[in-house]
Write a structure and sequence with these properties.
Blueprint: H1 3-15, H2 21-39, H3 46-61, H4 64-83, H5 88-95, H6 110-120, E1 134-138, H7 145-156, H8 161-164, E2 165-171, H9 174-186, E3 190-195, E4 213-215, H10 217-222
Parallel strand pairs: 1-2, 2-3
Antiparallel strand pairs: 3-4
Helix pairs in contact: 1-4, 1-5, 2-3, 2-9, 6-7
Length: 225
């Protein structure tokens, strides 16, 4: 466990009181994700306005000093992803005991995600000098751990994941969507992160509501289809 993860957990525990640690975590992740998303959108349409309102609604719940702590926690998340390319949010969620309070929602330990990625990604078939996109579909993304693990495997084998990896991630739970979006955005991964039931309502560019789609900054800059 890195120092950043330890401090994040301590901050969530220290803020608990008026709101539970789970609610604080959920609000912080959502506010941070919406902040990143709306900052990168030039056109302030109805979806942008809805997200901005949701962000402001969260901010109104907290005191000024608590919002300063939110900003500090975002810095710690960035530090954590820089120190060790791992599922920082998933680790914080589980180590802070938040998973045990919500029935049936747990995040895979990152070392298992990394093992799966190393088994599934056939590095021998990927030319590190090529510019050909590497596509990844994650139908139940959780906090994005499997995607981060795949990016780490590519990086460790000399492949520029920020330029080549193209991700479509989907999850039924909005919290998972925000967690995945936030971490992939900070890692510079080109991704569309979609809220919805992958089995009943898989992503369809012609039918999925734009309000259920978050595009990472790298995706918007990369001009993916």
């Amino acid at each position: 466990m890195t120092d950043s993860v330890k401090e994040l957990i301590q901050m969530f525990e220290g803020m608990s009181g008026r709101y539970s640690g789970y609610e604080i975590f959920s609000d912080w992740v959502k506010a941070s994700a919406l902040s990143v998303c709306n900052t990168c959108h030039i056109i302030h349409d109805s979806v942008w306005k809805e997200r901005e309102q949701a962000y402001l609604d969260i901010c109104r719940k907290y005191k000024q000093e608590e919002l300063v702590m939110f900003a500090r926690m975002l810095t710690l998340l960035i530090d954590g992803l820089t120190e060790d390319m791992t599922d920082v949010l998933g680790e914080v969620y589980m180590r802070a005991g938040l998973g045990s309070k919500i029935a049936g929602q747990f995040f895979t330990p990152f070392h298992l995600s990394e093992l799966c990625a190393r088994v599934c990604v056939d590095i021998r078939k990927i030319d590190p000098k090529s510019t050909e996109p590497i596509t990844l579909s994650e139908p139940s993304c959780g906090g994005g751990g499997m995607i981060i693990a795949t990016a780490k495997v590519l990086r460790d084998n000399g492949i520029n994941f920020q330029r080549r990896l193209r991700v479509l991630a989907q999850d039924l739970d909005w919290k998972g969507v925000y967690m995945t979006y936030l971490q992939l955005s900070l890692l510079g991964i080109q991704a569309k992160v979609v809220q919805g039931d992958t089995l009943c309502n898989p992503y369809d560019p012609a039918r999925t509501p734009r309000s259920h789609i978050l595009e990472t900054p790298a995706y918007m800059m990369g001009g993916l289809p």
